[in-house]
Amino acid sequence: MKPLLTAKASTTEEPREGKLHAGICAGALRNQCSYRDCFPEIEFVRIHITGNAGSGKSTLAKEIGSELRLPVFGLDKVVWQEGWVIRPSGERKRLEHELCQKPLWVIEGVSSLARESADVVIFLDFNRAKCYWRCAKRNWRYLFSSRPGLPERCPEIKILPKLVKLIWQFSSVMRPKILTECSSKEQAFFRLTSEAEIKVFTEKVKHNE
User: Fold this and answer.
1) Residue 47 domain-assigned?
2) Does the residue 119 lie in any domain?
3) SS3 of 173, please?
4) How far apart are CA 61 and CA 131, in angstroms?
């Protein structure tokens, strides 16, 4: 059986193959089949993990990057400068372009360019309540300091009102955009909506199923 995700060292550009899969395969969730039944003959060298704040993008990116030996990049340092200052649009686009031009990567965050450039998009599609809860668990330790992956002088306490608004608006603003963009491309697309689905997905990556 061919592996679910396979990183390759070659940088030769080849036509992408695959079918859109807007949700997790029910058979795969019950371990009755492999994701390769949905995505035959795909080698994944550029993986984009996207979703709302608190959906678990960074955690999953690190896990997949470690398993596939791919470099992992977070977009927080691209979006933000020291002191929660938003990076100018032109500079942000330039940095995103530099990342996406690399031959191998796992990029976590929200970026239309990364979605366009990826061989596979993994969308962590959790509801607001789950994202609020996960952010609360993650961020309380960094109320007065920068958490890993952020620039200096970015304590969570300074961004809390904006974060609450961002999480609330994601479902009505970014979620439809992500689903629409990914449905219009011949691109491998995994939409994971629960911890159970993420666990099944990561286990299949680990065991090359």
Assistant:
1) yes
2) yes
3) helix
4) 17
Instruction: Give me 44's structure tokens.
Output: 């994944």
Q: Which domain holds residue 102?
A: 40-206
Residue 23 covered by a domain: no
pTM: 0.82
> What is the distance between the alpha carbons of residues 57 and 137, in angstroms, rounded to a whole number?
15
- The whole-number pLDDT of residue 43 equals 60
Q: Which residue has the higher pLDDT, 12 or 78?
A: 78
Does 126 reside within a domain?
A: yes
Percentage helix, strand, coil for the chain under 3-state DSSP, each rounded to 5: 45, 15, 40
Q: Check whether 88 has a pLDDT greater than 80.
A: yes
> Mean pLDDT score of the chain, rounded to an integer?
82
CATH of the domain at 154: 3.40.50.300
Phi, psi angle pair for 80, to nearest 5°:
-110, 150
